[in-house]
Amino acid sequence: CYWDELTLFMRQEEKLVPIFKQNMQSQAVSSGCIGSATGHDVWEYTKKTISIAPSSTNGLADLQITATSIIEGDEEAIPKNANRKARVERHLLKFNGKAYAS
Hints:
By secondary structure, the chain is mainly beta.
C-alpha cells in the first residue's frame, strides 16, 4: 500500500500542471497480511525524502529521491537471517521538458 502522495506543480500560462508525483511512504508484505494481527506478519516499510540536486536539466533543478526501507512485523515472525539494517536507495530525477522522469 502507498500513501503521502507529493505532487509538484508548474505554472504554464494560466494553469497549474503537475510535473512530478510520488508516494512518499509504502509497505509491501513479505508474509501474512498487514493489519491482520495473525502473529506471522512481516513487511518492508519504505519512507522517501526528496531534495534538490546541485545539477539541473531543461531549466529546472534535478531532484534527488532517497528511499529508506526496513523490515518490520511481528518479531517472532521475522526470519533470523533477515537483514535488519536499513536499505537506502537513491534516484536522480531530471526534468524532460514536461515532467520529472528517472
